[in-house]
């Protein structure tokens, strides 16, 4: 068992798991807990409507947490005095408590602290007549991998339970200074390298939209949290699709920035600190509109994070004007794996809508996405996953099935020379992608978010449509667009696979099981073109979804 928690506490990992769940349960007020007989039937697919009938939220609280408000309009309502911070924070804490009991998306619950902070904000507003910042009273959730003083930062490792952080990470501190109220952290997968949210500490998170399907990962708890509207705005991280896959699975908006836009310094590592794979992780928001993604980014950049994080690039957004334009749209219909029928339909319908609105559409042929994924999986496993293996040995906890299924666990470590060779291949892919961008002459690229919609738990094992943009370090935004429909998306009886993996991907598709699953689009911009991409994505969203 090693010299970790077993010898330090004298408890098995199962006992630590039970103690951690008991701590979590104690942080939910008794009056917000569901009775056993109040839970919806086990076979309930869409879990979101239950919040309207459980009678824990008042009608006013249901309105505050409803689709009537995104974070931008909610912040405006609080600033105008229509809601107090306490009213808003209490409403979202109650909704998050219900969502968690149904879907298991929260980790470190901070309701009590959040309500006290909301009272402080109301006192400041009452005495000054002003908000403390642009996010005054806006409830937020954060992915598990950020430190909050007094709370654990386990990242799903049993070896790290009951070791509360002695500091808060700089990014949540920055957002708190802007008025945001953090109500909880959200669930992640074991190792953080899985498109799922399942670990031995907190268990598996359900997808609120279709509970039979995965919530995605690694920011899976955050994707589920936003889908259930547990908070007005969430924060995730992304190294292979970890913001975008959960956003797509749960039908919410998500933004993966270019590296150097949003600070990550001082976050809670899930691997070796100082490791450099050549594919950097980034932090970004998940929310309910493109303008919320933009609000988050503007608030963070206004705090001049380059003054405390040396990896953040100063002035790259501040000195770049955003052009009011109708961008030329390059389109990727397929690369590496043929998308499932609902995804193919979504791309076709999006292209048709954009073309009808006068956008110029051009085909975009990227370097083969499977080839890019082959490079990324070698770079992600330079150490042979020695860090998680070390942590598992400390506690004796087992590997959860989704970690084995995604295929990284048994890949051997690389020598330094091999690492250089793989990074050389990465550099060539970056050059090839740039050359294609220049050949096409597009401003943005429209692409699938994945080779399928949300699939059965543990089955999202190919991140080829997202990791390609991490390897090339391009910003990308997820826009929810439609839903899988058996009538519109029957199985492709005439499908001709390109290779065995292509056939296996199509074999996963079941029109009835995937019925109602969100189908999202991915909009990609050039490297460091984040400011213009946010503007372009808002315009595209207005055409595709009729948003204003």
Q: Characterize the biggest β-sheet.
A: 11 strands, mixed
Strand order of the largest sheet: 1-3-2-6-8-7-12-13-11-9-10
What is the 3D form?
A: globular
SSE-based structural type: alpha/beta
Considering DSSP H and I runs of 4 or more, what fraction of the residues is helical?
25-40%
State the distance separating the first and last CA atoms: 57 Å
Number of strands: 13
The fraction of residues assigned to DSSP E strands is 5-15%
Report the radius of gyration as a whole number of Å: 22 Å
Low-confidence stretches: 1-5
Number of H- or I-type helical stretches: 18
Overall pLDDT: 96
Quick overview:
Helices cover 38% and strands 11% of the residues. The protein has 548 residues and is α/β, with parallel strands linked by helices. The model is unreliable at 1-5 (pLDDT under 50).
Describe the structure.
The chain has 548 residues and is of the alpha/beta class. The protein has 18 helices and 13 strands. It has helices at 5-9, 13-26, 59-64, 71-79, 85-103, 111-128, 170-177, 220-228, 244-250, 290-302, 341-356, 369-380, 386-395, 401-405, 416-440, 464-472, 500-507, 530-545; strands at 106-109, 139-143, 181-186, 198-199, 203-204, 233-238, 253-256, 282-287, 329-331, 361-363, 444-448, 476-483, 518-524. An eleven-stranded mixed sheet has the order 1-3-2-6-8-7-12-13-11-9-10, with helices on both faces. A two-stranded antiparallel ribbon has the order 4-5. Helix 5 packs antiparallel against helix 6, helix 10 packs antiparallel against helix 18 and helix 12 (369-380) crosses helix 16. The protein starts with a helix and ends with a helix.
């Amino acid at each position: 068992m090693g010299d970790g928690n077993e010898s330090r506490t004298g408890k098995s990992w199962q006992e630590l798991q039970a103690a951690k769940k008991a701590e979590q349960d104690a942080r939910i007020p008794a009056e917000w807990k569901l009775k056993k007989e109040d839970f919806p039937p086990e076979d309930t697919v869409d879990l979101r409507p239950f919040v309207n009938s459980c009678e824990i939220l008042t009608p006013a609280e249901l309105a505050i947490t409803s689709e009537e408000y995104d974070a931008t309009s909610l912040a405006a309502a609080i600033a105008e005095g229509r809601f107090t911070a306490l009213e808003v924070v209490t409403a979202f804490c109650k909704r998050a408590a219900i969502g968690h009991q149904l879907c298991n998306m929260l980790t470190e619950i901070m309701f009590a602290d959040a309500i006290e902070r909301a009272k402080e904000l109301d006192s400041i507003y009452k005495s000054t007549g002003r908000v403390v910042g642009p996010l005054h009273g806006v409830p937020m959730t954060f992915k598990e991998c950020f430190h909050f003083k007094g709370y654990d930062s386990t990242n799903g490792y049993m070896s790290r339970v009951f070791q509360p952080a002695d500091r808060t990470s700089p990014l949540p501190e920055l957002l708190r200074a802007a008025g945001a109220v953090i109500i909880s952290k959200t669930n992640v997968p074991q190792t953080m390298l899985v498109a799922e949210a399942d670990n031995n500490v907190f268990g598996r998170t359900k997808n609120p939209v279709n509970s039979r399907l995965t919530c995605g990962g690694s920011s899976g708890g955050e994707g589920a949290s936003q889908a259930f509207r547990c908070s007005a705005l969430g924060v995730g991280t992304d190294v292979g699709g970890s913001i975008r896959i959960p956003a797509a699975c749960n039908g919410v908006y998500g933004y993966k920035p270019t590296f150097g836009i949003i600070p990550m310094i001082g976050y809670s590592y899930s691997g070796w600190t100082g490791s450099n794979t050549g594919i950097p992780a980034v932090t970004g928001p998940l929310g309910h509109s493109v303008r919320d993604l933009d609000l988050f980014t503007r608030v963070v950049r206004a705090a001049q994070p380059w003054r405390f994080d040396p990896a953040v690039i100063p002035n790259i957004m501040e000195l770049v004007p955003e052009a009011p334009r109708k961008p030329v749209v390059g389109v990727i219909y397929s690369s590496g794996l043929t998308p499932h029928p609902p995804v193919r339909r979504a791309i076709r319908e999006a292209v048709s809508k954009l073309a009808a609105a006068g956008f110029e559409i051009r085909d975009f042929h990227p370097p083969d996405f499977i080839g890019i994924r082959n490079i990324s999986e070698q770079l992600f496993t330079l150490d042979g996953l020695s860090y998680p293996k070390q942590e598992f040995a400390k506690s004796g906890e087992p590997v959860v099935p989704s970690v084995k299924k995604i295929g990284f666990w048994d890949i051997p470590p690389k020598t330094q020379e091999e690492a250089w060779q793989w990074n050389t291949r990465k550099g060539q892919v970056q050059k090839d992608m740039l050359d294609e961008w220049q050949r096409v002459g597009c401003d943005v690229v429209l692409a699938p978010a994945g080779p399928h919609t949300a699939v059965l738990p543990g089955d999202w094992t190919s991140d080829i449509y997202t990791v390609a943009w991490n390897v090339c370090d391009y910003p990308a935004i997820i826009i929810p667009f439609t839903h899988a429909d058996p009538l519109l998306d029957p199985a492709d009886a005439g499908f001709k696979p390109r290779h065995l993996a292509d056939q296996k991907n199509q074999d996963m598709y079941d029109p009835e099981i995937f019925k109602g699953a969100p189908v999202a689009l991915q909009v990609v911009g050039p490297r460091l073109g984040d400011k213009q991409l946010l503007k372009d994505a808002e315009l595209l969203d207005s055409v595709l979804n009729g948003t204003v």
